[in-house]
Design a protein that fits this description.
single chain, alpha+beta, about 45% helix, about 15% strand
Amino acid sequence: MFAVPATGRRTGPGAGREGVYERDLGPILFRWSAARMAEQVDVPASGTVLELACGTGISTEALREALPADVTIVATDHG
């Protein structure tokens, strides 16, 4: 989540250099491969997937799109 203070400048995730990576470069570099990876995951119905070091969440989003709705995804990062 980001905040827009009275100055009109964004702060928090999505602002500055980090924002360029998360918003622009990360998806260009990783969205395709994340989708291919997610297609290969075999989880039983109502199963759970644990994703470690999820970073920007690109792989997490790909998993959510590829897996059935009854699969639980637990994603964590140190950030």
